[in-house]
Description:
The chain is α+β, with helices and mostly antiparallel strands and 166 residues long. It has two domains: 16-76; 81-165, K homology (KH) domain (GMP Synthetase, Chain A, domain 3, 2-Layer Sandwich), CATH 3.30.300.20. 56% of the residues lie in helices and 14% in strands. The chain is built from five helices and three strands; from the N terminus they run H-H-H-H-E-E-H-E. A three-stranded mixed beta sheet has the order 1-2-3, covered by helices on one side. The chain is rod-shaped and about 105 Å long. It starts with 15 loop residues before the first helix and ends with a strand.
Amino acid sequence: xxxxxxxxxxxxxxxxxxxxxxxxxxxxxxxxxxxxxxxxxxxxxxxxxxxxxxxxxxxxxxxxxxxxxxxxxxxxxxxxxxxxxxxxxxxxxxxxxxxxxxxxxxxxxxxxxxxxxxxxxxxxxxxxxxxxxxxxxxxxxxxxxxxxxxxxxxxxxxxxxxxxxx
Length: 166
């Protein structure tokens, strides 16, 4: 019988036959020890023999190279820590775009005018996001609503509202 390296298995070698021989020997030794045990020691001898058999059954698993699996997993799975900031920036950008659209809709509902653009800057580094600045651009013909728009948005969202001609 030949092993993977092309050599012949020897007694006590690393082949599958020696594995089963060791398992058989441990089982027979456990059975003999159980027969020879007296008094209340039978359950302890059975317990120890069972542990030896379990260890022998699991022992081939030590030959599996875990680093090989982890290297393959690193290649297959993208770096999640690097992905989190990009997801965070994407979600913050999307939230700012939604807020800008919401500001435009507030201005239209309150005053019946369309804002040329709305820009909102939110500080995401704090525990709670904080609005730093809001810039609203109105048409030249709608600039007479500038102060009312600024007052309404400041009342709703706090200071930092600027209305410009766009």
